[in-house]
Amino acid sequence: MNSTADALQTTSDSTETGAQQIRDAIREAIVERRLSPGTKLSESDVGNLFNVSRTLARAALQALSYEGLVSVEKNRGAFVAYPSPEEARQIFAARRLVEPGILKEAAERITPSQVQHLKQLLLEEGRLMAERGQTARRAEIKASGDFHLMLASISGNLIMQRFMEELVARSSLVIALYGQSSVSSCGHAEHGDVIAAIERKDIETACHLMLHHISHIEADLDLRERKSVGLREAFEQ
Amino acid sequence: MNSTADALQTTSDSTETGAQQIRDAIREAIVERRLSPGTKLSESDVGNLFNVSRTLARAALQALSYEGLVSVEKNRGAFVAYPSPEEARQIFAARRLVEPGILKEAAERITPSQVQHLKQLLLEEGRLMAERGQTARRAEIKASGDFHLMLASISGNLIMQRFMEELVARSSLVIALYGQSSVSSCGHAEHGDVIAAIERKDIETACHLMLHHISHIEADLDLRERKSVGLREAFEQ
DNA sequence: GTGCACTATATCGTATACAATTATGCTTTC
DNA sequence: GAAAGCATAATTGTATACGATATAGTGCAC
Predict the structure, then answer these.
(1) Residues sharing a CB contact under 8 Å with residue B24, sequence separation 6 or more, in sequence order
(2) Distances (CA, A) of B170 to A14, A197, B163, B176
(3) CA of B228, C1' of D7: distance in angstroms
(4) Which helix (H) or strand (E) holds A73?
(5) CA-based torsion, A209, A211, A214, A217: positive or negative
(6) Is A139 helix (H, G, I), strand (E, B) or coil?
(7) Checking CA distances to A200, which of A45, A100, A183, B38 falls within 20 to 30 Å?
(8) What per-residue confidence (pLDDT) applies to B49?
(9) Is the Cβ pair B101, A102 closer than 8 Å?
(10) For the segment B104-143, what is each residue's pLDDT rounded down to a tens digit?
(11) C-alpha of A91 from chain center
(12) Which of A62, A90, A156 is opposite residue B59, by nearest beta carbon?
């Protein structure tokens, strides 16, 4: 769709196979929180929805399970992932572990035009925050994640880029589940601060700001254990 | 035949679905370098080898492609991944980026019994280095990687653990392709040094040792670009 | 009325079948 | 003899079919 998404595609043949298209469509729905955690994704339903056979639907669901966005239970089916509080903590721990390193790499290689691109993304993010519609909120969620993905892309390491895509997507699920404040992507201003630090080549500060930013997102979550785990099962389909 | 599958399957959970078993078997074969990079993995051949249908073979190959161990080309088939020199550099860059962080986490949480376990792994590694058989060499490769995976496991972060599994597996492919010295897993002594530093809680030194260790592995590679890329295509099936 | 057993239904797991695409080899022509 | 084009074979892409497993609904016994 946008340049970011295109840049993230590693080896995309112009003709993506059917399963990949379905996978991407479902992933987008999950990340934009149109699909709630725990929602059952029946192979037949998915197939019917996209007018393909169960074969392709199944392949797409399998792919999403490798990314941690969908959990497939043997002989029971696929569900939009329902990350546990512990899983949520590990996701943010992983982000704190890798994002400073990615930021360092990115700051060393960044070009002026890429800085402009980052600022543009920030502007777009701010514009969407002002709006009040559902679609605007969804676009805002996406833009907020795109900031982190853009940095990974600038770092030039495709492996870290793919890993960040997974972490950002899973973060979206976690926020959907445990987020408290109405402003889900609270760190808009913090994004700007990071860019500013990058621009004046103050990498050390940029890393610290990034770490605080990630911790702030996590701090907005309510990660207390919910009742019994069995209860979750009762609602997951 | 079954004998092959059984021999490869070390920890066969009865609950694992067929495709997963096949995936694990092929992955092990790739990591232990019984399958060379570029080898064609035809769906029919894989299916016949494991006495299953193409459906399961295809699913297993897809799964391996998500891990970066197999590359599937549309309408052309699956091949054992043939990482480019650039890809190899990115793999090691990623390892340098994440392993110090993992090590820090692990060092903070490690228990005395886990230290013993690490030492035991090191001993096993050394024993295998002394032997001269093909199977010993394969086991050595595995043990060498297991050291890094064990640290990830001790860190307690499942996400980083899975990521490290991918990186270690792909490193094995890279070493198979570009490794020069006969001693492929050269860093046996370095593993010991890292453990020693961990044991005396000198985390800073441990991280530095780990970084050097990773760089040493990479330094043993010959990552100069090979002739034309087209040539590779000529041999890959 | 409660609990258990059994059947019925829906969904997943796997195999097979057919369509689409690519690779191969032969023939033909210059 | 070399190159181009067509026909054939091989392989992948996708759909359908059948068996296996879990869920739920019903009826019976107590």
Answers:
(1) B8, B9, B16
(2) 27, 35, 11, 10
(3) 33
(4) strand A70-73
(5) negative
(6) helix
(7) A183
(8) 96
(9) no
(10) 999 999 999 999 999 999 999 888 888 888 888 888 888 8
(11) 11
(12) A62
